Sequence to fold (547 residues):
Amino acid sequence: MLKRLISVILILCMMCSLFCACGEEEEINAIFPINADPECLDPQIAENDSAKLIVYNCMEGLVRVDADGAVKPGVAESWSVSSDGLTYTFKIRDDSCWQMLKTHKNVLGEDYESAFSTKVTAADCAFGIERALRPETKAENAYLLFPIKNAQKFNAGEVKRNNLGIEVVNDSTLIIHLERACPDLLRILAEPMCMPCDEEFFNATGAKYGLELKYTLCNGPYYVGRWVDDGSLTLYRNEQYSGYKPIKTNAVYLYVNSDEKQYISKFNQGDYNAMKVSPENISLVNANDDIITLSSSNDVYGFVFNCEDSVLSDINIRKALLAATDISAMYHEDSGLTPAKGIVPDTCKWGEDNYRDVAGKVSLPEYSPQKASEFFKDGLEALETTNINISIICEKEFRTAVIRLIQKWEKAFGLAITVSVDTLETDELNSSVKKGEYQIALTKLSAKDGNTLSFLNTFTSDNAMNFAKYQSEDYDGIINSCKTKFAGNDLVKKYRSAEQMLVNEGVFYPVYSAENHAYVTEDLEGVFGLPGFTCFDFAVWGDGNEN
Fold:
């Protein structure tokens, strides 16, 4: 009898536990590989992808961008724009606050909890933008903020901060005055460099802002709660966050792992539940009904020409090769590849629209063996030679298409040209291009932030990412005018002319448009990545109403 009673009690306890568990919300954690230690989490100078990912999740600017690319409220609960597009007025939420850590007493003093105001104000938002524009900050994309009144002059050290077109009316009202209309402004304000910065805390760090855990200050959906020497970090849900929507994700665990094949294996085993995968490694993913595939048309494959090469430095040789290019030779009905519409990837925006839809398709040089022969003759004369050798590097999957193209060139130029093709692994090809150790490479270009101007800026003469080694005062002039002068439809026309120049002068010849892929497990449904998946928003949002 006693044993039967004990059994009944145990069964009742188990049932009670089961029902209690059913009432609890399942804990959701994200586990994600990052390619490098972030090194510094100062939002205004976050440089590598790891740093930007952390800043994007742990900080919140005036606005944020959702999974559909739409601008949503951030620290600002609402905003209005003047009819001429030159004045933006932001209403700051009263309940946006900084997440305090015990380690902050080492920065702010023992009485930090009572002495430091945790409220995020309009002044914090203004100071963050100001820091991005300070010449000593050297923010990578500070020029994107040049439409702000006197921003370019401030960045050049020509005017003081009180001349900058950023007006703090009170704690809850911020006004930004522009010199020229900028449809991309709201999207730019969602970038890491525009995140708010508390001036008191910044000054207290003694030039160490963002270098260690105690020198970080977060106001976003998460905060950095763990940062160890091996580069692994843990982001914890910010229970004080009261922004866009409630957050269900409890924590984000980040581990340094740049070996893509290895982390795909770990994902397949369940050690990671989110990752970005290169096109060449998609077949390694054990996709099933429990895995959600994310895609982004953020790559453009094409031929990049090394403009510093002894042969290809001659523009007539490059133009000859373009005129002898029958682009149809690069396509095959079974390839599954989509012809590129231009150099700028499809994910790049212009205000609320896709830039590509607004600007239209870029024109490729006409296939003309006769013109090719004329350009080639002029090029050989300038090089004082009768024949040239050209080497093309590409990935294995493109070899057959490249050989078909080479046959067209050999038909046009005969014995005066010798062309070879070398297939390389993706990492090796990328390394060769970055080092400038190539003549022509069939490679891909990607947009890191979805901004058309920052993408086109990579081809300017002094840009470290200009792997074509292209030097053109005319091109530099177009891009500089985009940064400092033009607005509206005139700006789109300038972007379009810059793209066309890169094609016409044989710098980059676009061939294919391709997608990036990322994978998450079904418990992370709602997690999304920015263009190219260089940055993820790990917040699994609840069903709360938007502000």
The first helix runs from residue 2 to 23. The two ends are 61 Å apart (CA to CA).
